Amino acid sequence: MKKSNLFILKVGVTALVAGLLGGAVAYGGITWFQDSGINVAVPGGSNLGGTASTSNLKVNVESQSEKAYNTVKDSVVSVINLKSNTSSSNPFDALLGKQSSGKLEANSEGSGVIYKKSGDAAYVVTNNHVVAGASALQILLSNGRQLEAKLVGRDAVTDLAVLKINGGSIKSVASFGDSDNIKVGETSLAIGSPLGSAYASSLTQGIISAKKREVPLTGSNGQSTGNTATVIQTDTAINPGNSGGPLINLAGQVIGINSMKLASDGQGTNVEGIGFAIPSNEVTRIINQLVKNGKIERPALGIQYLDLANIAVSQQKSVLKLPSSVQNGVVVYKTTPGAPAANAGLKKYDVIVGLAGKKISSQDEIKGILYSQKVGSTISVKYYRNGQLKTGHIKLSENTSQLKITD
After folding, report:
1. Which residue, among 208, 174, 203, 171, has the nearest Cα to 190 in the 3D structure?
2. Which label site among 41, 137, 272, 304 has the fewest CB atoms less than 10 Å from its CB?
3. Is 361 a catalytic residue?
4. Of the residues 108, 197, 243, 259, which is catalytic?
């Protein structure tokens, strides 16, 4: 019994001492040190002994990320969207008959990357939404020099644009990598001008989160355009102003053009680390068409249509005469005489369920398939007419600008 009490006593003392030592920064710890005879008074005299110096030890922190950044940074630019000052901020100017100055002012800023130098010219790729609505465009190089830029062409569907600048002072251009070869988990770097040129050449690092993510596209009004884009998803920080800048791999190759980020789920929940970039293979394909034609020519069917899901089940049976097993497709509402669909024999109330070997469940998929084809190509089509499945072929002989469907 005595041994047991002794053991308890030792444990208690040990715990008490540990508590005092561990709580030396708390009230009560000071008393313990003072009682032990240690002098804790602040010394007097000169404070020169408190000076500091830096070590001359040099740490080599060079990394592959730094090498990649240095490879690309001089080819990354800020793109400045200029608009004419056509209205005055003074509400009394109109009453007094004063006219606006018409002076060009910076309306917005984004990023871009110089990808080609040819002769005296250099070419920059950026986002369409960066240059949209501009009265004039300027490029701010990484060395701070400003250059005038001319629009070569732009495409709202893919959100890409090509600009031309004087290449006399351009020393560095970026190269494109193969976006099909990227891997989920691979390190990715974004370079650009988040929040404008004050933060030009900013670098952020993350990983590839998904190689091919389907996202809906919205217009400048925030409404859905009915189109979708296949993009690279990354958690690399992408902020306003990064749009149009490059997403690069550790080899310093451009694997995508940063285009957008997801900031909210639409229901009040903030979202972090979900950014998107247009894959480099798509970028180069669009660039080459814009340089050649100034626009993108896409095949058109020459029809008006709507989703089968928007048709009442009763009408699907009585009007379209569809089997109950058909759940998805698009309904032809009108055809343009002489257009590809009409030439292939499609008529009003036909229900398209397959195009170019792919199943059709919504009108967005038709647009996606057409946008992947070339004018002049021939594709297969599957459709129901009066309850019977039919097959055929459509020659995509015309593009969207040639077909204007009217009521």
Report:
1. 203
2. 41
3. no
4. 243
Residue span(s) of the chain under CATH 2.30.42.10 come to 303-395
User: Which class is 303-395 in CATH?
Assistant: mainly beta
* DSSP code string of 82-145: EEE--S-S-TTTTTTTPPP---EEEEEEEEEEEEEEETTEEEEEE-HHHHTT-SEEEEE-TTS-
Task: Find the range with the poorest average confidence among 13-22, 278-287, 302-311, 353-362.
Answer: 13-22
CA atoms within 13 A on the CB side of 338: 5
State the residue for tokens 């001319």. 150
Q: Strand locations in 119-250, DSSP E? A: 121-126, 136-140, 146-155, 160-166, 187-192, 202-218, 224-234, 246-248
Please identify which residue in the block is written with the tokens 């670098």.
Answer: 203
Q: Which residues contact 5 (CB under 8 A, 6 or more apart)?
A: none
Catalytic residue among 108, 111, 129, 209, which? 129
Which candidate in 155, 159, 350, 364 is catalytic?
159
What is the number of other CB atoms lying within 10 angstroms of the CB of residue 260? 21
- Give me 121's structure tokens: 């010219």
Structure tokens of 116?
A: 């080609």
- pLDDT tens, position by position, 138-166: 999 999 999 999 999 999 888 999 999 99
Active site residue 243: yes
Name the segment(s) of the chain with CATH classification 2.40.10.10: 70-86+101-166, 179-293
- 262 Cβ contact partners less than 8 Å away, ≥ 6 residues apart: 271, 274, 275, 276
Look up 407 and say whether it is catalytic: no
d(CA 301, CA 158): 20
